[in-house]
Amino acid sequence: KRELEDFFYVHGGAFIIGFGDSARGTQLMKSKDFIMVTFNYRLGIHGFLCLGTEDVPGNAGMKDQVALLRWVKDNIANFRR
């Protein structure tokens, strides 16, 4: 059995709008088998406001994306069974 490739989709929207469900991958899946990973992250002021304080250090949206990539690295093998 061959190992499936991983396909990550990070939605656009200038860090203001968008959602992970905007790409479904159905057209791609017709020609190739893979594991598709989509996700949501904080946007707008909730994700990118930076006050330089301990409570609001900034870039929470980017930190959400990094957390997802770490989670996938640690857990994606469980989805290949």
UniProtKB/TrEMBL annotation:
Q: Which Gene3D superfamilies match?
A: alpha/beta hydrolase
Q: Where is the Carboxylesterase type B domain?
A: 8-79
Q: Which InterPro entries match?
A: AB_hydrolase_fold, CarbesteraseB, Type-B_Carboxylest/Lipase
Q: Which organism is it from?
A: Helicoverpa armigera (Cotton bollworm)
A UniProt-annotated Pfam family: COesterase
Keywords, alphabetical:
Glycoprotein
- Annotated signal sequence is none
Q: What name does this protein carry?
A: Carboxyl/choline esterase
